[in-house]
């Protein structure tokens, strides 16, 4: 059995017993160590020389990558975070020395002891208690929209209250977490807010009332995309719609200004037909 190929299929990091069970002999492992292709990173674990540094660190500390870190690695929308989040069973020996945030917990969903990454379900449950509600909801909705988790399956698990609330609230409609955050922050308003509405051949992020369109620009709104957006904005205005565009920084870091702008527009009845 090819030790290198087998290790690569496991992300470049694996337990020796896992490789042995899959047919990699002790002789093959010793030969690859002597060649410098693999190395022992801690007792019972080996890794390729170019293995993912985060997986190697997790194996050394006896933890698994989880919470917001795992969500980001799965390509889900997350708010920016600067330090790794890992999970460990209570009283795990080396985990206390881990850099970043350690979630000491007993997993709700079975955690494979031969992997250095948590299940996405466990990561989402941890996010519910770790991240601000709107940020966690945005990641949950991203996972649901991508079809990576099932809300039905999650709802049948013995979830803590914060995660239970997200199961009830999450919907697979938002194209980005910014849309989830915008909608959540304005849910108190006594006005209809519809996400992802088609108008004149293009989707708009939100339609407030009948005439107020809100578009949330991301980093991709440049070049040809920006030209296309401007053209559609003009078309909307020619048909009696009012368009407000906001950027990521405005939404995340200057929310009172954004909310004030929307409130002023509603107060001026711009969300209603003439």
From TrEMBL:
InterPro entries referenced in this protein's UniProt entry, alphabetically: DUF559
Domain DUF559: 196-265
Superkingdom as given in the UniProt entry: Bacteria
Protein name in the entry: Type IV toxin-antitoxin system AbiEi family antitoxin domain-containing protein
